Amino acid sequence: MTHTDWPLWEVFVRSRRGLSHTHAGSLHAPDAELALRNARDLYTRRGEGVSVWVVPASAVTASSPDEKDPFFEPSADKPYRHPTFYEIPEGVKHL
Amino acid sequence: MTATVPTTAALALGDDALVLSHRLGEWAGHAPVLEEEVALANIALDLLGQARVLLSMTGDEDELAYLREERAFRNLQLVEQPNGDFAHTIARQLYFSTYQHLLYAELAAHEGPFQPLAGKAVKEVAYHRDHAEQWTVRLGDGTDLSHDRMSRACDALWRFTGEMFQPIPGVDVDWAGLEASWLTSVTDVLGRATLAVPEGPRTGAWAAGAGRQGLHTEPFGRMLAEMQHLHRSHPGASW
To answer: Which of B62, B67, B165, B218 has the most crowded Cβ, counting Cβ within 10 A?
Structure first.
């Protein structure tokens, strides 16, 4: 059996108390419906109250490692680009 | 051991779960893809959990599982059928999990000895049913080859399905209503899968099914021999 018809899917899971979906891993499935079910078996152990996203790996566009420097260079010598001087009030969460 | 085990409703339902669990366990390492392997093992583990609760309602679960002879088992003949190809396994899952889901939903809704188990297990079997339906549709409505194989599997197991609706003494449900719902649901899934509803009889002279009376099909003895071998070789050992 070949995997020609079984594309790769990326799985994102939000745990019951989680705030956002986190990349959990990947799997093979013939379509989105079965990818969801496989993800549930493989990555959630059927814990209730979780949300799962599956995305065909081919739909993900990633930044290129070769262009890492120009892409992510933080311009550390320009402090005005980094608003880090503010005191954050205590009531603010998840910042 | 054969003579001393009373036939109870818990034994019938427990044997269904135990035997099917063992059959699904045989897929370990042999499923078409890794992901499906995990799914089948998950279903097997759910069923084994149900079997443990049900058998414990009648006696010692290990003694009941490992020391009874073939004629003392009360499972449906459907669940003891060999795995065959993937389509056969899926057809068996479709027929059985649809039945089990409808039955457990009813048991969970009414007070009785099976309510605690059914209330918990009904979520599991809903998933088993969904899994079987998804695969029936994909194989039936897949390639010409998968369509033929799925069709052959549904036909081959059809004659075992009438037995599921023989009333079990001590299980207080509307069996005729259960059978009607089962037929509606299976007809719907087969239709979505572009498969014909098999034409053979489900009950009567040409149908199979006397597992509840302890009469089993030929492959079952071999399955039991494998399942019970270690326990019988070392009786009384603790594991």
So the answer is: B165
Measured at the alpha carbon of residue A46, what is the angle toward residues A45 and A48, in degrees to the nearest 5? 130
pLDDT in tens, B36-51: 999 999 999 999 999 9
- Tokens linked to A85: 């001087």
A9: β partners: A27, A56
ipTM greater than 0.90: no
The answer to whether B5 and B61 are in contact (CB under 8 A) is: no
φ and ψ at B29, to 5 degrees? Answer: 85, 0
- In the structure encoding, which two tokens stand for residue B53, read together? 């609760």
Instruction: Please report residues of B whose CB lies closer than 8 A to that of A41.
Output: 35, 38-39, 42
Q: Which of residues 20-79 of A touch B (CB under 8 A)?
A: 27-31, 33-34, 37-38, 41-42, 46
Contact B93, B134 (CB under 8 A): no
Q: Looking at the complex, report in whole angstroms how far the Cα of residue B48 sits from the nearest Cα belonging to chain A.
A: 17
pLDDT averaged over every residue in chain B: 93
How confident is the prediction for chain A on average, in pLDDT? 83
B152-170 confidence digits (pLDDT tens): 999 999 999 999 999 999 9
Does pLDDT of B61 surpass 50? yes
Chain B residues with CB-CB distance to A33 below 8 A: 134
* Nearby residues of B177 by Cβ (< 8 Å), 6 or more positions away: none
Size of interface A-B (CB pairs under 8 A): 30
